[in-house]
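Continuing the batch. This is chain 6 of the set; chains 1 through 5 are on the previous pages. Same settings as before, nothing changed between runs. Recording input and output for traceability.
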Amino acid sequence: MLLFDTGKKLEKAFTAEQFDALVEVLEKREDKSATKEDLRETELRLQVELEKVRGETEKIRAEMKETEARLTVEIEKIRGETEKVRGEVKETEARLRTEIEKVRGEVEKV
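Output for chain 6:
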């Protein structure tokens, strides 16, 4: 409920109907208003939750770095294998050209 002096000041500042409405609203809110202790408790709970989220975020970042490192190694392996295959293809192409020229030469003789 309102303090006596505060209630008297408000009663003079508002019409009777406005004052009654204000008192009704304040009385309804009285049991719902947060105390400093409630706010501090909420703040502490939020800080704990925030720390949990930060920890999870750091864990995810570390996992991402590990994944990135593994993928970099895999990409380099694939690049090496691709270069090896390119070399084999060039070698095969050169061998086939040589054989084709050989066959052409034999066909022209005939």
